[in-house]
Amino acid sequence: MAACRAAREVAGMMEGAQAGFGFLSAPGAAGFMGVGWWQALIAALEDSAGLAFWHALDCGGSAAYALGAVRMGQKCAVLQAPIPQFNAVKAVYTQESGVLFHARPPSFHLIPSLCHTSSLVGYFTDGYCQSSDPENKLPDTRQKKDCYP
User: Fold this and answer.
1) Cβ atoms within 10 A of the Cβ of 47, count?
2) Residues 6+ apart with CB under 8 A from 34
3) Which residue, 36, 55, 87, 105, is most buried by CB atoms nearer than 10 A?
4) How far apart are CA 107 and CA 111, in angstroms?
5) Among 50, 56, 47, which residue's Cα sits nearest to residue 8?
């Protein structure tokens, strides 16, 4: 919710009832938490924020989890499987008007404290830091700042 509040203050991040950003589950989350958990989490977040969010469930290398997810209504997923398996599952996602990624899209990690400057909130409010999290692989398009005194 802190990320939503910070995004509301940035012009263009919220358009009507659609957020200009979304959520990506933890790597392999379909296997250890499940589709129902992910969809309930997103539904609660959308209800609380009053916004719709783009969201993708990471299915790791399991084509079975990815197929189960699309059958349960998940429109976006990540599947890091061999190309023949990926292409077969992608055909199902396409048929269901969904999107299947072969690799995780660039994302911020929301697990660190939300006051941490490499978090999404820090990015929205303070800009991109020179000493940001090495896992953050987004292109450096913002003015760099020294994050730590």
Assistant:
1) 9
2) none
3) 55
4) 12
5) 50
